[in-house]
Write a structure and sequence with these properties.
Elements (H helix, E strand, L loop, with lengths): L5 H5 L5 H24 L1 H8 L4 H10 L1
């Protein structure tokens, strides 16, 4: 049985530095994704909108 093996529990130990590194990587990934989305917001918005950029340009020149 693996539950009674004393060396099996040693494999489950997480060092505090390892947990800190994992949290830091998750936060960095989330911040990176947020910055990427912020930089590309207009492009992403135009992909999902019904109006194209050409139609928006022609409407602004007509007015």
């Amino acid at each position: 049985m693996e539950l009674l093996d004393p060396t099996a529990s040693a494999l489950l130990y997480l060092d505090p530095a390892s947990v800190n590194w994992l949290v830091q990587m998750l936060v960095a990934g989330a911040v990176g994704a947020a910055v990427y989305i912020k930089m590309r917001w207009t492009h992403l918005r135009s992909m999902f909108s019904k109006d194209t950029a050409e139609e928006a340009d022609s409407e602004s020149t007509d007015a």
